[in-house]
Amino acid sequence: MISTYRQLCPVVFGVGAVNLLAEKVKEHGGTKALCIYDSGVKAAGISDRIVRALSDAGIAVITFDEVLPDAPDSIVDRAGKLGQDEKVDIVIGVGGGSTLDTAKAASVLVENPLPVRQYYIGKGVRFKTTKPLILIPTTSGTGSEVSLMAVIHDEETHIKDTVLRAADLAIVDPELTITVPKAVTAVTGFDALSHAVEAYTTNCTNPKADILTLEVMRLVAGNLEKACEDGRDLEARTNLSLASNLAGMAFNDAFLHFGHAIAHELGSVFHIPHGAVCALTIPEVIRFSSDVAPERTYKMAGALGAAVPVGATSVEAGELAAAHVRRLMKKLGIKSLSEQGISPEDAMNCAEGAIAHNPFVSCALKPVDAAVLRVLIRQVYENYR
Ligand SMILES: NC(=O)c1ccc[n+]([C@@H]2O[C@H](COP(=O)([O-])OP(=O)(O)OC[C@H]3O[C@@H](n4cnc5c(N)ncnc54)[C@H](O)[C@@H]3O)[C@@H](O)[C@H]2O)c1
Ligand SMILES: [Fe+2]
Questions:
Q1: CB of 147 shorter than 6 A to ligand 1
Q2: Per-residue b or e along 160-195, where b marks 16 or more CB atoms closer than 10 Å to that residue's CB
Q3: 350 in a domain, yes or no?
Q4: Are 161 and 200 contained in the same domain?
Q5: Distance between terminal CA atoms of the chain?
Q6: Does the pLDDT of residue 380 top 90, yes or no?
Q7: Ligand 1 contact via 76 beta carbon (within 6 Å)
Q8: What's residue 213's pLDDT?
Q9: CA 325 distance to own-chain centroid
Q10: Ligand 1 midpoint to CA 290 (Å)
Q11: Over pLDDT 70: what percentage of the chain?
Q12: What is the mean pLDDT of the chain?
């Protein structure tokens, strides 16, 4: 089978990597930076440190600190307008996925007309991207720093839409994640895990993504609990930063499927943080293809650390792996849909929208239409209470 895989941008990875930022900005010809972040990253002292380092190196910095969860389009427009008005020549995003996606889309607006809405995938409007974009994740979950898409919440349609813009450089410094609160650590870790199990079970996998995704499963299974127990465990944090980053590279080519279709729709409708709803779908994603992808199911179970007796069928292995993930979810405080006060009917009624708004659902190993997705959402609901 012939497959295509890419790496969209170089990555500088490791504890202390953020100290190279000013040097990297200069290498990219940056003299005036738009630095984008949110209040959580500011409160953690990360943005101040970065702005100071850039200023000390003689780089002018314009700050935008109004990022909101899930990158609403109006915030992207405001950030982009600021960059245009200030004639910045480089954009830097420092934060979780909401910030990185805001920065990706705002970097388009810095040199193209507003609003961002016109650049959603499928609209066919071309844009230029000559001004460099550097992304610095401070959570370990989305992998947005190495993926092609910016996921934008459109406030008119309430749909998660997409702008395609890859970074020119990613700087992944695990030390920046030390201040991430326990609950955010848990849900972002499950986001990375969901990228791995989905990208390992699509109809467009490739050898590179297969290697990366299985390693991501091992890394998350082996480190998420440790990082939640002790946020200062730098080894666990480093492994999770790596997992998040590798998963981003993997799903960029191998894509995602129904887990993220459900996550995007339920996340938009019920305002659930992305990773929290991704987590809920993982066990069902593992179970879904256990009959048609036996080898993959055994390998996932092994990578996740689930005990599977010799001679178990792949469907049994899928059940055991799913139960293993559910136990970790419970331990780390992932709330079920019922615990969030959502009714099964309201959840299942998201099936049509999830199919309509997320065409990548067709990448699953078996056909997923609205009727199938209703059943899957019910399973997400019933199998984890
Ligand atoms: N583009 C992609 O490839 C991609 C992939 C997956 C998810 N996403 C998107 O990413 C978004 C979710 O991103 P997220 O899960 O990283 O959450 P987030 O960016 O919304 O951040 C969650 C919270 O953590 C805080 N925070 C971040 N870093 C911190 C730090 N170091 N210390 C203390 N607090 C910190 C933030 O202030 C915020 O309150 C969603 O909108 C989702 O759709 C994008
Ligand atoms: Fe995700």
A1: yes
A2: bbbbbbbbbbbbbbbbbbbbbeebbbbbbbbbbbbb
A3: yes
A4: no
A5: 41
A6: yes
A7: no
A8: 98
A9: 19
A10: 31
A11: 100
A12: 98
Q: What is the domain extent for residue 93?
A: 11-177
Q: By three-state DSSP, how is residue 258 classified?
A: helix
Q: Find the 149 Cα to ligand 2 centroid distance in Å.
A: 11
AA identity, residue 55: S
Instruction: Give 167-216 pLDDT, tens digit per residue.
Output: 999 999 999 999 999 999 999 999 999 999 999 999 999 999 999 999 99
Given 135, 150, 177, the domain boundary residue is: 177
Does residue 187 share a domain with residue 158? no
Mutating to test ligand 1, I would choose from 46, 76, 139, 197 the residue with most ligand atoms within 8 A of its C-beta, which is 139
Secondary structure E strands in 110-214? 133-137, 149-153, 160-164, 169-172
Ligand 2 geometric centre to CA of 189 (Å): 10
> Number of C-alpha atoms within 13 angstroms, CB side, residue 74?
5
Residue nearest to atom 5 of ligand 1 (CA): 142
Q: Would the CB of 141 count as within 6 Å of ligand 1?
A: yes
Query: Does residue 303 sit in helix, strand or coil?
Result: helix
SS3 (DSSP) at 35: strand
Does residue 84 have its Cβ closer than 6 Å to ligand 1?
no
Tally of structural domains, the chain = 2
* Ligand 1 binding pocket includes 176 (Cβ within 6 Å): yes
pLDDT of residue 1: 84
Mean pLDDT along residues 58-65: 98
Q: Which pLDDT tens digit goes with each residue over 36-48?
A: 999 999 999 999 9
Residue 71 near ligand 1, beta carbon < 6 Å: yes
